[in-house]
Amino acid sequence: MTRDNNHKILDCTIRDGGLVNNWDFSVKMVQDMYAGLSEAGVEYMEVGYKNSAKLLKGADAGPWRFLNEDFLKEVIKTKTDTKLSALVDIGRVDENDILPREQSFLDMIRVATYIKDVDKALELVDKFHGYGYETSINIMALSHVMENELAEALEEIAKSPVDVVYVVDSYGSMDYSDIDYLVAKFQRLLPEKRLGVHMHNNMQLAFANTLMAARKGVEFLDASVYGMGRAAGNCTTELLLSNLKNPKYDVRPVLDLIERHLVPTREKVEWGYNIPYMIAGALNEHPRAAMALRASQDKDKYVEFYDKLTSPEAMPTNHHSD
Amino acid sequence: MTRDNNHKILDCTIRDGGLVNNWDFSVKMVQDMYAGLSEAGVEYMEVGYKNSAKLLKGADAGPWRFLNEDFLKEVIKTKTDTKLSALVDIGRVDENDILPREQSFLDMIRVATYIKDVDKALELVDKFHGYGYETSINIMALSHVMENELAEALEEIAKSPVDVVYVVDSYGSMDYSDIDYLVAKFQRLLPEKRLGVHMHNNMQLAFANTLMAARKGVEFLDASVYGMGRAAGNCTTELLLSNLKNPKYDVRPVLDLIERHLVPTREKVEWGYNIPYMIAGALNEHPRAAMALRASQDKDKYVEFYDKLTSPEAMPTNHHSD
């Protein structure tokens, strides 16, 4: 038995799950989530995006997409040992929205970026670090990044004050050998940074990959309750709590959250492993086409979908990286 | 890229999936399955149990539970490159039902056994081997077997004519470190045997564990289309076909099978990952209690179920091994 005492579970149900239900979570559910995750021993809860409504024009979404500090304090009321984090996207965050950490309920700000914008991400990291936050940089779509580009980016990241650097399997296309390779590379090029992983479940590998990363020394493990997240969803919080060998973890409060909140939510909106997401993952493509299929009448026409994605005339959906 | 040319996918949808729908598969579906799996390049299809109706009193089930050779020939008509296998259980097979291989459509007979009956299993293996069949011995519930017992059994198996020896994760409780350990042990103690794995998906690890075993040199990989199988189900055939690097594999015909047959079947009967099966897997228990829960009104009462299984007064369901 390997004790897993140095891991941190970062539950991103409200943030990533919001991509499924347009952040339509009740205040009661978010309060229950914070209480339940705290009781379960989960170290971080990501309560939403700290993007700016002004920069996302026409955006009409629940409050967890544009976290407001006053609202957050009203909801959370009293902090527990579970820290709070928020994610920002390059170009969608108004830096004037961010308070110094001592005035905020947030402990950590994570910056999601594509490889081409790492410079912009590091500028934000500098600022948030200066405000006193823990910071992370989450490089998305790593499976579409060339080696030389990645090496250059990691070199810059190594020099920055960022605390945690994430390996993100945006397309759910990685298996253990990819995790093996990338974690070793990040460890070599970022010897002084803490690492994290954020996996997707297109090929039923999100939990397996996260477990593998954990055993290789990756500290931050992203997960969501019942796997709630865009498309095939994430590594589940309940599987990590059940399997990591840390006496402080207790899966029971999370089972209660699933029973009371996630099962009813799942009856209204869809996420999780299914065949179109599996196909997208196996082909190392953005889930966009599969999501459109699942929202259509043809949601179970797998062969037609497969033929479309694999035909020589297929739209190069994998050349966009958003 | 590692070429995976030496692997054999053994699709057990009809046999293991029959445990879910009481073998209520139409002849048309089984014919389509054989055609589709053949086209996909799958090496073996397990068409059912070769148990005896006489020895399973009161049994009322579809014909795939008690394979009859005449019926099988009528259904399959012409053999392809895809071999056919059947499973037998100790004490439930009438040896007089088994024809010599040259008179049969079956190529392989697999014997499922618990550790205590390995002697009986080997007696059957001897007989089937004498009839000309390829044979395997599938030791179930390995996670409940003590080291000394296992070592003794493997010693006997090493001396037998059996072709393939399976690592079976009956309770879906194993992760990659268990696979690592057991495969290495089997390879060490059975240097002249070919190995196989049969994994269950209680913790979303069936595919990951099977992939890991494949990379460690395990040759026979059990899977089922859409994961159809008892409780949390199996490693899926479509994930193996999509991921193993063998140019002869083509997932497309299996997507067609899913669309035409498995999706409609799944609307009528339940299998696959869910929370009660996850709990049973994490606790290394037989899925029996979870199956009973899923068949009841309380199917989503996860906390109550968890409390029942973890209370000091819990029925020792894990002391039975059937």
Taking pLDDT < 50 over at least 5 consecutive residues as the criterion, the unreliable ranges of chain A are: 318-322
> What is the residue-mean pLDDT of chain A, rounded to a whole number?
93
Q: Summarize the biggest pleated sheet of chain A.
A: 8 strands, parallel, barrel
Largest interface: A-B, 36 and 36 residues
Principal-axes geometry of chain A comes out as globular
CATH superfamily of the largest domain in chain A: Aldolase class I
Distance between the termini of chain A: 40 Å
* Rg of chain A, nearest Å: 19 Å
CATH class of the largest domain in chain A: Alpha Beta
One letter per element, helices H and strands E, the order of chain A comes to: EHHEHEEHEHEHEHEHHHHH
Structural domain count of chain A: 2
- The share of residues in extended strands of chain A comes to 5-15%
| Content-based structural category of chain A | alpha/beta
Strand order of the largest sheet of chain A: 1-2-3-4-5-6-7-8
Which helices and strands appear, and what pairs or packs with what?
The structure is a homodimer of 322-residue chains.
Chain A: E1 8-11, H1 13-21, H2 27-40, E2 44-49, H3 69-76, E3 83-89, E4 108-113, H4 118-130, E5 134-139, H5 147-159, E6 164-168, H6 176-189, E7 194-198, H7 206-215, E8 220-223, H8 237-243, H9 252-268, H10 275-282, H11 288-294, H12 302-310
Parallel strand pairs in A: 1-2, 1-8, 2-3, 3-4, 4-5, 5-6, 6-7, 7-8
Helix pairs in contact in A: 2-9, 6-7, 10-11, 10-12
Structural commentary:
- Two copies of one chain form a homodimer.
- The first copy, chain A, is an alpha/beta fold and 322 residues long.
- The first copy, chain A, has two domains: 8-266, Alpha-Beta Barrel (TIM Barrel), CATH 3.20.20; 276-310, no CATH class.
- Helix content of chain A is 40%, strand content 13%.
- Chain A has an eight-stranded parallel beta barrel with strand order 1-2-3-4-5-6-7-8, surrounded by five helices.
- Residues 318-322 of chain A have low confidence and may be disordered.
- Chains A and B meet through helix 7, helix 8, helix 9, helix 10 and helix 12 of A and helix 7, helix 8, helix 9, helix 10 and helix 12 of B.
